[in-house]
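Reference record:
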Amino acid sequence: MTDLKGLCEPQFAEVEAALAASLGKDDVGASVAVHLDGEPVVDLWGGSADADRTVSWERDTLTCVNSTTKNMTALCALVLADQGRLDLSAPVAAYWPEFAAAGKERLLVRHVLSHTAGLPDLPGPTAVDDLYDWQGVTAGLAAQAPEWEPGTAAGYHALTFGFLIGEVVRRITGRSLGAFFAEEVAKPLGADFHIGLSPDDDHRVAPLIAPPSTTDEFTAGAPLGPDGTRREHTGVTVRVRDANSVAWRRAQIPAVNGFGNARSVALVQSVLANRGSAGGVRLLSSQGCEPAWQEVFRGEDRVLRSPMSWTVGFGKFGNMFGWGGWGGSLVASDPDARMTVAYVMNQMLDRERHEDNRGMEIIMAAYSGLR
């Protein structure tokens, strides 16, 4: 058994066993957390923070969670909506007037959050460095015409999700998405999650490790469909080396460049599973949480090329809602059980070559603790 550190309530022993087994097989370093009723019942970590296995994964180790960041960006929108500052059913252009161009006058905030806005691809950027130009990217999105009538179809907005929601947040609050998250979500909760990482935290970062038999040139391409085909993809190609760069850490790319660990991811998202509060801190009302698990689209996702159910901000899977990131991290919440499960690791797996059940096995182990 791999040596693990942290907290695990006895009834969740299967979670500890699942993490230990994963660290003994596929993982290099990883953390797992389970929150129940807004309180931690599992907070475990182990393994190594580097590919050479010379540096231990510690309690405060951070790593890039890629698209698991989308859960945080969506929560920011729900917090603003609950405060009465953002109407989820209002046109995006009500907050961002330039966005009304190219037939988007009636494109709603909820369309963006549910991946039904018709803007799955960035309009102009072709290099990762272009992603660091917030004004350039958002100006391009404002001028772009949607690929389909908003609300009539879904297509995963892999990178555009963060820029679109982030610009709405910026127009309302005058703050970047990362700053709003830090001040209005992470700080009151005491959550160690960051969208835009400070140099002071660089020493805590566990770099992502490319999948076995690949290098740090390994890319996040268009998602692979169930028939083995890909949607045509023209746009930014993100490599593992990009996600490990200092420029990536400092940037605002709120769909994909959040840094945290399972503890911080579970803590933040448990607010939604626990009807608006976690650890005695209330961020939004019980009613304000409900859009997170209320389905607004069900059908074939044009980008993922698979059946999907989208809520306002999250993927919905049975009783659970949440989302995961390139390489394997994920978070899922069950509002009926008031449970949130998070898994964050540094060893990426290529799902085209290697079935990746690590996160799902953690989730199933967590459910065993409820019996």
About this structure: Confidence is low (pLDDT under 50) at residues 223-230.
